[in-house]
Design brief:
46 helices, five-stranded parallel β-sheet, alpha+beta, 63% helix
Length: 1022
């Protein structure tokens, strides 16, 4: 028979759309995982022919080595989807030991049929099939009207947040389903997010990421994916399945240094952009089990200004929140107080509602009247209790359907004494009436999670996947505890049906039935099965595996996956969750064999310290580093103690730098007992480098820094490589070897990108920019810092933003745009920002320089006083990198107020600092300011001597930053002596240097229009 090769095919009541990978039964879309769908296509291609197992395995699993069981599971999934009976099939016939044959007639589908099905699918974000239980829903008229009103307001652009609260089983999920059914035909976008206890995990933003993943995989998901790519790249970075290899590197650059704050902002931006095209409904179910980051998203979305056609429906159980201390209740109350949210507290059904339910279910108003009193009396109208009790009575044969309709045939079964007294009792009784095999299966399933696959629980039951899947299908088909919930495919290529508990209470009660020893063994088996099924991709589900192994008492594996989960949270820019995973791992340390405990604790504390550091939380980071020092010292781990002390000495620079040197010297003393040349050199170099940075230039310290850098050149440890870059940056900057400094900062920026630390990246960028300013590469400096500023602003990193703004401000001040420079500095600085000493000194120096050049001497004095208080009263040292700027500004200030004695005193101090170091540009500028003082004192000879020294320096080095100022002052000196021609010659030299600076700026750069670059500007003016 000739093979069928068409994209749109029909067989029986089904339509196969291969082009869009869809299977339809009428208007209903049938969910099929990729592998079963491919098997179906292979069989339908050759109707009536035998397709061997080898042919199917080669066609569908060509890239994997799998057993025939994978094929059997896929065919079983197909039969379940098609409603086919293996014994008397209508579609797929088994040819024993050989393969399968598709026996139904296959024809080309009419295009309109496929189109109509697609139209139906596109009109609704949920499946179109309406199960019979949906037809029995009653009550909630008032609640539905309230939600309808909220939707109307949302459509008008008034964003709506509705919290739906109530006890377990009260009908929150049912109300959501009723609401979504009413909304399905209205062209709304729906993002349906579910939070799970136990193994849904508390990973940051996980419910939202899962919902976005699901929406993007739909046939109409391309536009949503495009919007995420454009407006929320940090979220797309959490959805690696949608990133091609070519995208990955670009996205790593795009999301470098991203923060939780950025993810919050991007999600709100994304939803508002989507809502501009059509209204969107965001459903957040069971927020009492959500991660805290998801609650933050809800709060952020509610508080945003501006209109947005967004309706958020969030459910939670108040009792769970009260007991567990979850923040959702506090957020709910705060939003409601400020008018951002409303509450819909669900009550139980009335007796009229229960009677209506019974009438619909049994299709008899008379029978409902007979039954309602005893049902309502026992259940109190608790919805889940009502439906569970009726299910139980039907299953036990107390309620029986005959030709005459439904009847209560066993009065004793429905008596007050025989019926359970509460919902939990009802569920327990239902469980007790299951077979032993069914109970065992469900108990294992309860440990697996709210949604389970036959694949997952088969290993823990030591039964075949096919047997387990059939049991689950039987339970779901008879409405007993489980529901069919699609298919699961593991990275190994195995597939099976996926199932969900009818309500979380079933899972909770079943889980409670597991005795401690069996519970631990079950979790260990479930973890091992998942780990094997996911193989090399096991880290993708690290939080789930960590929890299984933790409860399964395999503590080394639990700690391994907790560490991986912390890394995953860090990639989601959520330090709090990362620290939480590491804290859980620390709690497991006592369960390790004694010989492993100390090393594990030290490693985890250090990992958590760096996690805090990357987020800018220095206080928590320092606390953990101090804990490492204490624990290492207590247990004789000298290297770990010294390493933590070195980290402490560097981290203190941004908190309390008075402690930096004492801690570094403490590390140096302790390092003498460690026989490791590279490590000892690093510790010695750290002390020397800190002294260079905080105490000024010293040849011996410079030599020690250089030796340390040379010894650790080949080290692969990331922290050691970062320290080497920092040491070389400081050393080369102080000796005015600016090209070498830029080489060190470039390597440092690459490493900062690798660890995702935006502030460290910007710190390197700022130092590099100053080096480029002194080299005359103004355009390059501005472009690089502007790029760093964009990254910092996008990632809402205030310290990094401030440092970028100040660095750009310095460039503006060099170009004589003092007003712009001062405005940038005033905007950047503030209490929290200035707690960082480096930012404080850079910013206040810039303000003092700008105001003295503008002639605002009162404000100049204010900022000089602030720096002097920080240095003299608080004993906080100023970096050697910025001290020359401070001393030069002091000189300018005393000159401006006419106190030449103090000007000379400051200049002498300036000379002592710059002549001690190979700081050529500032040595030249020191001579230049001393010449200006001499000119004001009419000492032309002294002024000439200083200018001769300055000219000699700038002529023999590439120092345009200093050269134009030196040449200008030479012109002023000759002008004061009446040598107009010589003055004009030196002014021209100054202008040529200034013109070369202008040429480095981009042609359209606004800074090019600064008066500084005007060839007609009098370079003698300040």
């Amino acid at each position: 028979m000739e093979a069928v090769r068409r994209d749109a095919l029909a067989f029986g009541e089904f339509r196969l759309d291969r082009a869009n990978a869809l299977l339809w039964r009428g208007a209903e879309r049938i969910a099929l995982p990729p592998k079963p769908f491919e098997v179906l296509c292979c069989l339908v291609d050759r109707p009536g022919e035998l397709v061997t197992k080898d042919e199917l395995l080669d066609a569908v699993w060509s890239e994997l080595h799998v057993s025939e069981s994978s094929l059997a599971v896929a065919v079983n999934a197909l039969r379940a989807a098609l409603g086919d009976d293996r014994q008397s099939p209508n579609y797929i016939e088994t040819v024993p030991r050989r393969g399968y044959r598709f026996i139904a007639a296959v024809a080309t589908a009419e295009p309109p049929a496929i189109a109509r099905a697609a139209d139906v699918e596109g009109a609704s974000a949920t499946e179109q099939a309406i199960d019979r239980r949906r037809q029995w829903r009653v009550g909630r008229t008032g609640a539905l009207e309230m939600l309808d009103k909220a939707l109307q307001l949302a459509r008008a652009g008034q964003r709506q947040i509705v919290f739906i609260t109530g006890e377990a089983g009260i009908g929150k999920t049912t109300l959501l389903q009723m609401t979504l059914d009413r909304m399905n035909q209205q062209g709304l976008g729906v993002l349906h997010c579910g939070c799970n206890e136990l193994f849904g995990t508390h990973e940051a933003f996980l419910p939202l990421i899962g919902a976005l993943n699901e929406c993007c995989r739909r046939t109409d998901g391309a536009s949503l994916l495009a919007s995420i790519r454009e407006h929320a790249p940090t979220w797309l970075a959490q959805m690696p399945g949608f990133l091609g290899e070519a995208d990955r590197a670009a996205f790593q650059h795009e999301v470098f240094g991203a923060t939780r704050e950025r993810m919050l902002r991007e999600f709100a931006d994304l939803m508002e952009r989507l809502a501009a095209r059509r209204p969107w409904v965001i459903v957040l179910e069971d927020l009492h089990w959500s991660d805290f980051a998801t609650v933050d998203v809800l709060s952020r979305l509610a508080r945003r200004d501006g209109k947005a056609a967004i309706l958020v429906l969030a459910t939670y159980r108040p009792m769970e929140v009260a007991v567990g201390g979850h923040p959702v209740r506090a957020v709910h109350q705060d939003l409601r107080i400020h008018g951002y949210a409303t509450e819909l507290a669900l009550d139980r059904l009335t007796d009229i509602d229960v009677e209506r339910y019974l009438s619909l279910r049994f299709n008899s108003a008379d029978f409902a009247k007979k039954l309602v009193e005893r049902i309502f009396a026992r259940t109190g109208g608790q919805p889940l209790f009502v439906t569970s009790l009726i299910d139980h009575l039907v299953a036990q044969g107390a309620l029986v359907e005959s030709d005459a309709g439904w009847q209560l045939v066993r009065e004793d079964a429905a008596s007050q004494d025989s019926m359970p007294r509460d919902l939990e009792g009802m569920i327990r009784q239902q469980i007790d009436h299951l077979t032993a095999d069914e109970r065992s299966l469900l108990e294992v399933a309860s440990a697996a999670g709210a949604e389970v696959s036959a694949l997952h629980i088969a290993g823990a039951l030591d039964r075949s996947v096919l047997d387990v899947e059939q049991m689950c299908e039987d339970l779901a088909r008879t409405d007993r505890i489980l529901l069919v919930d699609g298919m699961t495919e593991w990275p190994s290529g195995d597939v099976s049906g996926r199932y969900a508990f009818q309500h979380a209470l079933y899972q909770e009660i079943l889980y409670q039935r597991l005795a401690p020893a069996r519970r631990a063994k079950t979790h260990a088996l479930l973890g091992a099965g998942l780990e094997q099924g996911y193989g090399l991709q096991a880290r993708e589900i690290a939080p789930v595996l960590a929890r299984h192994f933790e409860l399964g008492r395999d503590f080394p594996k639990a700690m391994h996956y907790l560490g991986a989960a912390a890394e995953g949270s860090a990639r989601r820019f959520s330090t709090r969750e990362a620290a939480s995973y590491l804290s859980r791992a620390l709690d497991l340390v006592p369960h390790l064999p004694p010989e492993f405990r100390v090393a594990a604790r030290l490693k985890l504390l250090l990992q958590r310290a760096w996690a805090w550091r990357a987020s800018g939380d220095f206080l928590n980071s320092l606390q953990d580093l101090n804990a490492v020092v204490a624990h290492a010292a207590e247990n004789g781990h000298e290297r770990e103690e010294v390493n933590a002390l070195v980290d402490l000495s560097r981290f203190c620079l941004y908190v309390d730098r008075r402690q930096s040197l004492p801690i570094a010297e403490q590390a140096l003393v302790k390092s003498r007992a460690i026989d490791d040349a590279a490590f000892s050199a690093l510790v010695q170099g750290n002390v020397a480098n800190l002294k260079l940075m905080l105490c000024g230039w010293d040849r011996e310290n410079a030599s020690l820094s250089e030796q340390a850098s040379a010894l650790i050149t080949g080290e692969q440890d990331l922290s050691m490589r970062l320290r080497r870059c920092s040491m070389e940056m400081v050393l080369e900057f102080l000796r005015a070897n600016y090209p070498a400094c830029c080489d060190a900062t470039t390597r440092g920026k690459d490493l900062a990108r690798a660890v995702g630390d935006v502030y460290l990246f910007v710190l390197y960028e700022a130092v590099e920019a100053f080096a480029q300013i002194y080299l005359g590469e103004w355009g390059r400096a501005k472009r690089n810092v502007a790029s760093a500023l964009a990254i910092s602003e996008r990632n809402a990193n205030p310290q990094a933003v401030a440092l970028c703004q100040l660095t750009i401000g310095w460039l503006y001040s060099e170009a004589g745009e003092y007003g712009s420079a001062a405005r940038r500095a005033e905007d950047a600085l503030g209490g929290m920002i200035e707690a960082n000493p480096f930012t404080f000194f850079v910013g206040r120096n810039l303000l003092a320089r700008a105001y003295v050049r503008m002639g605002d001497l009162a404000r100049t004095r204010q900022h000089l006083d602030a720096m002097e208080r920080r240095m003299e009263v608080d004993r906080v040292p100023m970096e050697s990198l910025v001290i020359p700027h401070y001393l030069l500004t002091c000189c300018d200030y005393w000159i401006a107020i006419g106190d030449l004695d103090r000007a000379r005193s400051s200049a002498s101090q300036f000379l002592a600092v710059t002549s001690a170091a190979p700081d050529l540009p500032f040595l030249a500028l020191c001579h230049e300011v001393m010449a200006r003082i001499a000119i004001l004192q009419q000492d032309a000879q002294l002024a000439g001597e200083h200018l001769a020294a300055a000219v000699s320096i700038v002529r023999h080095a590439r120092l345009p930053h200093a050269a134009w100022q030196v040449y200008r002052t030479v012109a002023v000196l000759y002008g004061s002596l009446g040598h107009a021609q010589r003055a004009a010659k030196w002014r021209d030299r100054s202008r040529r240097v200034i013109a070369s600076l202008a040429e480095t700026l981009d042609p359209g750069d606004p800074l090019r229009s600064a008066t500084f670059f005007d060839a007609g500007w009098d370079t003698g003016a300040r």
